[in-house]
Design goal:
about 170 residues, six-stranded mixed beta sheet, 14 strands
């Protein structure tokens, strides 16, 4: 359920439905488009989802944001998200998939999503890997203040459609 609070009248009203029920989503507010973005989450039958939705309060409707690239974040819930105002994109880090199944359920990757007209136009994924090329799910600091495992590498991947505007000069 989506509930909307109006502080002027101190009342709640129910907003539009349209996506499957879920909890523990990653969310960010896009101030340019006046939309709430949510990614992933859990429900009773699906341990992790990888859908991105935008809720438009002005029209009280949900819009599914379909990726224009085939590379999208893996299913997850409890990820951290924020809106990057400089680059007009949602940033999402970490999260958990397969709750209650360790090891391997924690995510340590960073994703960004730019969207326009209902499509994700580009994404960046960052992955932390150890010296053998294995994904690292958590870093700790040793007594000298260095991360372990050490050394580590951060692998960045830019994903966008051929000739996409965000890919001409990405960095």
């Amino acid at each position: 359920d989506l509930w909307i609070y109006d502080p002027a009248s101190n009342t709640w009203s129910q907003g539009a439905s349209g996506r499957s029920a879920r909890s523990r989503v990653a969310e960010a507010w896009d101030p340019t488009r006046g939309a709430m973005l949510i990614f992933g989450g859990w429900n009773n039958s699906v341990p992790g989802m990888n859908e991105l939705w935008a809720y438009m309060p002005g029209s009280d409707q949900w819009v599914s944001l379909l990726p224009s690239t085939s590379d999208v974040p893996a299913e997850r819930a409890v990820a951290a998200a924020t809106w990057d105002t400089v680059n007009s994109q949602m940033l999402m880090y970490g999260g958990i998939n397969r709750p209650g199944q360790l090891p391997g359920s924690y995510k340590s990757d960073l994703w960004s999503a730019k969207w326009d007209a209902g499509l994700i136009t580009s994404s960046v994924s960052l992955e932390i890997i150890d010296s053998q090329g294995n994904p690292v799910s958590a870093l700790t600091l040793n007594e000298d203040g260095w991360p372990t495992p050490n050394p580590i590498t951060v692998k960045a991947t830019l994903n966008c459609p051929a000739g996409g505007p965000d890919c001409e000069n990405p960095f």
